[in-house]
């Protein structure tokens, strides 16, 4: 019988194992995804940047099952990665052992720009599809991806930037532009649609350091790929999952929150479609960023 065992970098006692078994038995209809999320919330299992470690909890559950301690519900089909053969189930690949280190021991970081014809792209796709809570179904429109590695080439994080939100009242008020100016200026904004610190990586201050490093180079990278500039970065941080600590530490500006409604709501007023409330963060890439949008 398990007394105390190290699983996914965490000591799991017989009491905690009993708690996991009860959670599974009392909720037979729950998916593995929901079980891992609830477990991470119960254990207050967060990364140093404030992100819920539900993916680490999933890997922990899988390892417990492989060791014969629990029986998980049947696996449900995971989203496929569009345009590729990466039909991944979230439990198909086991995470490496935890990487626990000081940021100074990993610097200078290597920042790899990824894309369909560039190295590291397939691994970048796999990480997002397997470990990001939104999954990844392939790029849409203009986008720029980064794989972050340690100075010795160990994979640490992934970021993806793409097209800006069409309408965002707090952002639009902060810029101060007209509807016509917004139509012309949206291509000059990049949206940080995915940010993933790999779930086995435990490095204080890594997330904010990565954001700062990307902010110093993304304008040049975007210009090189698409032959036009970007002047502003935006990100929408889901409140019930993340605290936005890394964005705040990297000097992004909190300008408000989304309404919790989708763009379809104006068509379905009697049956509103609700979405998670998100905090809105902006980062101007130049001191005159707002002026550039309102010429």
Looking at CATH, the homologous superfamily of the largest domain is: Gcn5-related N-acetyltransferase (GNAT)
Uncertain stretches of 5 or more adjacent residues: 79-85, 87-93, 263-268
Percent strand: 15-25%
Question: Helical proportion?
Answer: 25-40%
The average pLDDT score comes to 84
End-to-end gap: 70 Å
* CATH topology grouping of the largest domain: Aminopeptidase
Task: Please give a structural write-up.
By secondary structure, this protein is of the alpha+beta class. The protein folds into two domains: 63 residues, no CATH class; 191 residues, Aminopeptidase (3-Layer(aba) Sandwich), CATH 3.40.630.30. 32% of the residues lie in helices and 20% in strands. It has eleven helices and eleven strands. The strands form three sheets. Strands 4-5-6-7-9-11-10 form a seven-stranded mixed sheet, sandwiched between helices. A two-stranded antiparallel ribbon has the order 1-2. Helix 2 crosses helix 3. The longest helix has 13 residues.
Main attributes?
295 residues, 20% strand, Aminopeptidase, two-stranded antiparallel sheet
Short recap of the structure:
The chain has 295 residues and is α+β, with helices and mostly antiparallel strands.
Task: Tell me the layout of helices and strands.
Elements: E1 4-7, E2 10-13, H1 14-26, H2 32-42, H3 54-66, E3 99-100, H4 103-106, E4 110-114, H5 121-131, E5 144-149, E6 155-163, H6 169-175, H7 179-185, E7 189-197, E8 201-202, H8 206-215, H9 218-226, E9 232-238, H10 245-249, E10 253-257, E11 278-284, H11 289-293
Parallel strand pairs: 3-8, 7-9
Antiparallel strand pairs: 1-2, 4-5, 5-6, 6-7, 9-11, 10-11
